[in-house]
Design brief:
The protein is mainly α. Helices cover 65% and strands 2% of the residues. The protein binds benzoyl coenzyme A.
Amino acid sequence: MTDTTTAPAGTGGEADLLAGFEATISHNDRIEPRDWMPEGYRKTLIRQVAQHAHSEIIGMQPEGNWIGRAPSLRRKAILLAKVQDEAGHGLYLYSACETLGVSRGQLTEMLIEGRQKYSSIFNYPTLSYADVGTIGWLVDGAAICNQVPLCRTSFGPYGRAMIRICKEESFHQRQGFELLMTMMRGTDEQRAMVQESVNRFWWPALMMFGPPDDESPNSAQSMAWGIKRNTNDDLRQRFVDMSVPQAKVLGVTFPDPELRWNEERQAHDFGQPDWDEFMQVVKGNGPCNTQRIAHRRAAHEDGAWVREAATAYAAQQTSVREEGLA
Ligand code: BYC
């Protein structure tokens, strides 16, 4: 790992390193793992990228809940593939995070001990199969709004992981929309299931973008470092403007009496989510927080023998190679 705190001998010192770092940021070039970086930049990235990776892995649970109860073989195959994609996204992001000098094992420990967060959205339950469609449409839709600008984030490994993830997320969003469209063309009962699901997920989807800008402690510094490219409120607005016409095509409404087009702003006005509820969910008191972490902890403990076997095999291979060389 690059030493981020002391200047190598023979250079102009930390001030020069900082100037080099700031020049890279101001030219919109990438910072790479071997480059010098301020400690705060490294810590902020570990926090955000780890939180993002954890979200992908914990995010497998609400949809995974329906794999065994999918209504057809086709829907089951689609859902299995989507949940597997999320595992893959988690792995790209853990790998990107490891380039900052922290191991995947440490990150997993921090998640299951509650020292790192994951997205609030995954602490809500999935109560009907329509939720699989709504998660694809609204949750992956919100994720795309948030993540497309992150393809241009200033840290190379994170930006490159995001490019691949965004391609798959777009596909996920379309599969969700297609599932909901199929249900909307079905019976009255199916249409009611879709509307009920959208009613439950709309506000939590808006919370995914984080607190309002004037209550977001990290945004200003993360924007100055080029980690974030847009503020939380900008991205939330973009998501609302994108979703309203899609809802019309589907034939569903959003549960917000304040939602209307503002001609002057050329954007939608909309109400605020319940930010007290958001804070409760983020602090661990949402409907499914305990269950999600307990499940993740159990999976980690169940997998201990696999990690031990892989470590023992790697050590054995190394000693076989060394004996061969001797
Ligand atoms: N949930 O200063 P702020 C997916 C925390 S998964 C929980 O604005 P920041 C998918 C925040 O961490 C996609 N916590 O923070 C997977 C901070 O606390 P700490 C997940 C939240 O970092 C499976 C505090 O509140 N996407 O797509 O500048 C199936 C103050 O916030 C949340 C990402 O992870 C939240 N919603 O901005 C389907 C995107 N919001 O850490 C789909 C990457 C805020 O200081 N992350 N907090 O203790 C980001 O873009 C930014 O981290 C955020 C927050 C916009 C989320």
